[in-house]
Amino acid sequence: MLQDLALALRLQALDRKIAGLDNEIATLPKHIAEIEKKLVSHTRQLEANRAALAVNNRERKRLEGEIQTHEAKVSKLRDQMLLAKTNEQYKAFQNEIAYAEGEIRKAEDKILDLMEQSEPLEKNVKAAETELKKQQEHVEAEKKSALERTAADQKELASKRGERAEIVGQMDAKFYAEYERIRKKTKNTPIADATDGRCSACFIALRPQFFQDLRRQDKLMLCESCGRMLTYNPVIDVGSDIAASQQLA
Fold first, then answer.
1. pTM flag (> 0.70)
2. Cα(93)–Cα(83) distance, rounded to whole angstroms?
3. Can you tell me whether residue 48 is helix, strand or coil?
4. Which of 75, 87, 215, 224 has the fewest CB atoms within 10 Å, counting from its CB?
C-alpha cells in the first residue's frame, strides 16, 4: 500500500503539471486573440483618421470646382456685359458678377480653413500608421513566441504523459481506479497530507483514533470530510518504528 501511495503522490504531481500545460496550451491562442483585438482597434483608428483626411480633401476639391465654375461664369458675364444695350442690363450683369466673385471669396476662405485643418489630420494619419505598424510587429512577435511556447509545452506534455503511463503501470489497478475517481472530483488534488492531525486540503481535524490508524499506513484511508486519500508525511513504515520503540523500552 505504501508503494502505491508513494506512486500516487508522484502521479498527483504529474497530473497537476499536465493540467497546467493543457491550460497554458489552451490559453495561448486566447492571449493572441486579445492582442489581435487591440490591433483591430488601432486599424480602425487609422481608418477613421484616413477617412477624416479624405473628407477634407474631397471638400477642398469640391470648393475648387465651384471656384472654377464661378470664374467661368464671371468670364462669360463679362463678355455678355459688353453687349448690354441698357444701363439696367449692365447693372444686372455687374450684380451677377459681384455675387459670383463673392462666392469665389467664400470658397477660397473655406479652402484656407480646410488646409489648416488638414495639417493635424495628416499628422494623425502618420501617427496612426506608425502605431499600427508597431502593434503589428508586436502581434507577430507574440504569435511567434506563442507558437514556440506551444511546441515546447506539447513536447513536455507528451513526456509527462509517457511518465504518467509508466507510473500507472506500476500501480495496483483497484488503487489506481480509486485514485482516478477522487482526482476527477477534486480537480487533480486527490491526495492530502495529514501529518499535523488534520487534512491539508479541507483543514478538518481528524479523529484521534482515525489519525493513529492513518499513521500505520497499512491501508488506504480517505478524509471523512472531503474524501481525499490521506497520507502521513513522510510515508514511512510505522510498524518498524513501533517495534524499535518497544526494543528501546
1. no
2. 10
3. helix
4. 87
